[in-house]
Amino acid sequence: MTTLEQDLSLDTLLASIWEALQKGASSRLHHFHTGVVATVSDGAPQVRTVVLRKVIPETRTLIFHTDQRSRKISELTENPNICWLFYDSEMRVQLRLSGNATLHHSDDLADVQWKNTRLQSRRCYLSIPPSTELAKPESGLPESLLKRNPTLEESEAGRENFTVVETHIHTIDWLWLNSSGHQRAKFVWQPSGEVVSSWIVP
Ligand SMILES: Cc1cc2nc3c(=O)[nH]c(=O)nc-3n(C[C@H](O)[C@H](O)[C@H](O)COP(=O)(O)O)c2cc1C
Hints:
Layout: H1 10-26, E1 34-41, E2 44-51, E3 54-56, E4 61-67, H2 71-78, E5 81-88, E6 93-104, H3 108-115, H4 119-122, H5 152-155, E7 162-176, E8 183-189, E9 195-200
Bound molecules: flavin mononucleotide.
């Protein structure tokens, strides 16, 4: 999604959405490199920023990494409904993607993703559990890791806390803010795999 034209077809638009998401996953500088993920907690919404790690358009999959002990994992175990929100402030494009989450903690996908994780990222998984109450502001990391990354060997202790959240998308809501009239489109995948695409009022 580098440029947008007024008379874009829905098919071209959908292809450009997946392309932009793939760029987001691969480039730290892209606006879609981070997104906001919403879960449901006892009927109430919960949102947080995560890094978009991988996008597979063919299976409509978006992946992020998290700590197995974090609140979002218990929320997703209870209710796998999930929603992603992205905003590209240069393109003035908002994306909302709804779907279902599958958690991967001790399988091949988690192993592969862990192998590709940098030491700096692995450090987070070596803290005491996320959301633990503290007497003073602290990171929860062991003293020895406050000022350096773990060695490869030290980092392996974090593997048991590492989880891959695979999200399978069934609906995309695209919004483009435009001075000559905003535009909005909706893509809904049917159980058959067919996508129903439409322009809707912004
Ligand atoms: C820029 C940014 C990127 C983040 N990326 C991740 C991430 O990829 N995975 C993750 O679990 N938390 C990430 N976080 C932290 C979460 O936003 C959140 O604070 C944390 O995961 C605890 O959320 P929970 O209590 O809802 O589980 C990120 C935060 C920021 C500000």
